[in-house]
Specification:
Structural class: alpha+beta
Oligomer: single chain
Largest sheet: 6 strands, antiparallel
Mean pLDDT: 79
Low-confidence stretches: none
Strand content: 25-35%
Shape: elongated
Number of helices: 4
Radius of gyration: 32 Å
Helix content: 10-25%
Order of helices and strands: HHEEEEHEEEEH
Strand order of the largest sheet: 3-4-8-7-6-5
Length: 181
């Protein structure tokens, strides 16, 4: 074998490949059909089946809090008209990552023991404004979902009537101080 060149076997192989690919054109045969592309499902990146979670990913449970699915390994401990509390033996970091993939938050505050998603909307149910807190407590994580959606304003009310229903005068003074006690 020569230095910097091809060995005889490699040169023979290269000539055979080049000759085989040029042979149909020389004989006048029809060109070989181009290989068919794989179906679209095979061409995309492999994805796990719908009923399986990726390693380290939490699966969605059957319960929801204002449109946000609660992770399967968490249990709802309390449900109120404006808040839902759930707990589970899951690291808080995994719960925060679970929430992060399902909401669009106006602000995210991350700390060593708590992650807060404020002014958040669930991607699948954007009509509600939520505050989601993921709190680490000893060996459990707590998920607190609060509905902060404001009710729509009543139509046809005057400015004075809106102030009065809020318990204030148009000057901003309290109408009935005894109600505040």
């Amino acid at each position: 074998m020569k230095r910097g060149g091809l060995s005889r076997a490699a040169a023979a192989l290269a000539a055979a490949v080049i000759g085989a690919s040029a042979a149909p054109a020389c004989r006048g045969d029809a060109p070989a059909p181009a290989p068919t592309p794989p179906p679209a499902s095979e061409a995309s990146a492999p994805r796990p089946p719908v009923d399986q979670a990726l390693p380290g990913e939490l699966a969605e449970g059957t319960e929801q809090a204002f449109g946000l699915p609660i992770p399967r390994r968490m249990k709802v401990r309390a449900r109120f008209p404006d808040a839902v509390f759930a707990v589970g033996e899951i690291p808080a970091e995994r719960v925060a990552n679970y929430v992060r993939t399902r909401v669009l938050a106006g602000n995210v505050e991350t700390g060593p023991a708590k992650t807060i998603f404020s002014r958040a909307t669930v991607k699948s149910a954007p009509q509600r404004m939520l505050r989601v807190e993921v709190v680490s407590r000893a060996h459990v994580s707590e998920l607190v979902v609060r509905d902060e959606t404001r009710p729509p304003p009543e139509r046809g009310l005057s400015v004075e009537e809106r102030w009065r229903r809020s318990g204030l005068t148009p000057d901003g003074k309290v109408l009935d101080p005894t109600r505040l006690e």
